[in-house]
Hints:
Elements: E1 3-8, E2 10-11, E3 16-17, H1 19-29, E4 33-37, H2 40-44, H3 47-59, E5 65-69, H4 77-88, E6 93-96, H5 98-101, H6 111-120, E7 124-127, H7 136-145, E8 151-154, H8 165-171, E9 175-178, H9 184-193, E10 202-203, H10 213-222, H11 227-247
Parallel strand pairs: 1-4, 4-5, 5-6, 6-7, 7-8, 8-9, 9-10
Antiparallel strand pairs: 2-3
Amino acid sequence: MIIDAHVRIGQQRECSLEVAELLSIMDQHGIDQTLIAPSEAQIAFANRAGNEATAAAAEASDGRLIPYAVANPWAGDEALAELDRARAAGARALAVDSSLQGFDLLDGLVDPLLSYAESAGWFVYVRTGTPPGHLPLPLALLARRFPKLDFLMGRSGATDFWIDAAPALRYAPNLYADTSYAPWDTVLSEFVRDPEIGASRVIFSTDLPYATPAGEVKRIRDWPIGDEEKAAVSGGTLARLLERGTDRA
């Protein structure tokens, strides 16, 4: 099974991805399920509209699309109420983008949302790669503050901060790497070779609509690792993270 860990649907600033197009891409490349987040503007401020859009897309997809919940932590208690609404509508994980949402990962603002995610059994996708505060090592520090909560390091610091991804993963055992943009012969292979990381902490993602789906899928299929390792990367580990939220639904 192939599960894509992160896609954004709708109109972004410089690109877009409609649901019908996403489903066609999944068919073309053999992707069984995809976790979907809403558009950049909806992540930043129109959270209700974004959560409704992903819930509707998931409901019409016959189980192929799985929604992330989004809420801007600046909204305080209303952000938590929005997560409640999203969860009731089928959300299975939390997506955070501190660059779009305007906070530092370590300033405490997002902590109530992370506590909610922990209680719901969700994992948390956090987009990284944008300086100065949205980088692998600060995310590792945040993950250490929430040791019972699983974090997916979106883009694994791509591209200028790939060098920090492996140290971050070593520092926080509840942190997982995202494959998008990362070449297997350098970045991804370092993760797998490292006894403190390994293939069980690497998760496939296309990061559509920003990346090229053919390239992201081909990279994982061409990666010369064992069948069990490839199964974990392609969807096994992510399926396990999603099961925790199902158990607490």
